[in-house]
Amino acid sequence: MTSREPSEKELSAETDRLFEHGLSDLGYTDQDLERCARLTWKINSLKKSQQAVIPAHVYQRAEIIHGVADFIGDSYKLSKLCSETKARKIVFCGVRFMAETAKILNPEKEVLLPALEAGCSLSESITAADVRQVKAKHPGAPVVTYINTSADVKAESDVIVTSANAPQIMKKLYAKHDKIVFLPDEMMGANLAKALDKKLGKELITWKGRCIVHDNFDASSVALYRKMYPGVKILAHSECSPGLVSVVDMIGGTGDMMKFVEKSKAPSYMLVTECGLGDLARTKFPGKVFVPMCRLCPYMKATGLEQILRVMEKPSPTHRIELPADIIAKARKPIERMFELSEDTVKL
Ligand code: 13P
Ligand code: SF4
Q: Separation of 97 CA from ligand 2 center, angstroms?
């Protein structure tokens, strides 16, 4: 199903709409806006005719977030909203593990992933067979798995967590267990062990997965930034190394970082994470100053408007998320457990 071209009037209204979202302040030229508007106009008309919904992670490109997304958020918010959507089709702008989560929660719906390169180094660090081996080594210990994992890995887990709820859920589990297996992020595992005062390798068992974006931030430059920007608040994602986390003002997920900025009166902020969050913060809080200290995630940035349009016009089987029924049934349980355990702590 191809979409028609917008008329001159429709194109100009769409270009104005993107401008009003502050895209020019992020460096989009008039030509960029017009090129994006042609695509967003077509995607938005297909969305209506196909009864599709577009969830987008906050690291996605600004033209996706402001141009076509129906809802944006961190991994927790996206999975929760996907579990409630009435749409017939989900075109997921994020990475594969997020689209798989949407499929697990909506087995009867068509879920499309526009870019096949949209993987994740954490998700790729572990297989279901690895989880089975870890479980055999630590019998009785609950397996708490970060949402950044494949459906097969989720199917072997007891509870899924995200950056928005991991400390709270782990705390609840430690009330009943002496040892927990946390997979697969080594850095986040170390940060959790420190925050919860647990012995790494004994009370908290982790894996060797790392995020290629957050693993590489350098703690030694933090002192220099503090001198250059007096009063700056430095916020880091919980996938960053414990060395970096020990010198920042706040650690958490992308949702927590946005909530912190919203409430704080600091003169400036440094968001130590993927660059998309800074772009979003600049458009959401135009009166606040954001000091650049970010990295691009090649997986998150693999999705562009062209790929979204292509997958909506001509979906190919490779872009359609298909999972075996038994994996869906097994993986759904630990995700639902996460929803139950987060009810009293995570506000969307
Ligand atoms: P959040 O759930 O905090 O948005 O994190 C997702 C992610 O991929 C971080 O790198
Ligand atoms: Fe995965 Fe890191 Fe990219 Fe997030 S930022 S999708 S954890 S590689």
A: 10
Q: 166 with 252, same domain?
A: no
pLDDT at position 1: 75
Q: How many separate domains does the chain show? A: 3
Q: Whose CA is nearest to atom 1 of ligand 1?
A: 74
User: Distance between CA 89 and CA 163 in Å, rounded?
Assistant: 27
* CATH assignment of the domain containing 305: 3.40.50.10800
Task: Tell me how far apart the alpha carbons of residues 272 and 180 are, in angstroms, rounded to a whole number.
Answer: 28
CA dihedral of residues 14, 17, 23, 27 (deg, nearest 10): 50
Which protein residue has the closest C-alpha to ligand 2 atom 1? 120
Show the ligand 1 pocket: residues with CB < 6 angstroms: 58, 74-75, 148, 162-163, 211, 237, 239, 253-254
Average pLDDT over residues 182-203: 98
Q: What's the pLDDT band for 292 if we cut at 50, 70, 90?
A: confident
Check whether residue 259 and residue 329 sit in a common domain. Answer: no
Mutate to test the pocket of ligand 1, among 92, 97, 149, 254 (most ligand atoms within 8 A of CB): 254
Token output for 90: 């989900």
pTM: 0.96
CA distance 148 to 79: 12
Nearest CA to 147 out of 161, 136, 157, 159 is that of 161
Verify that 191 and 337 share a domain, yes or no.
Answer: yes
Structural domain containing residue 61: 8-119+300-315
Cα(163) to centroid of ligand 1, in Å? Answer: 7
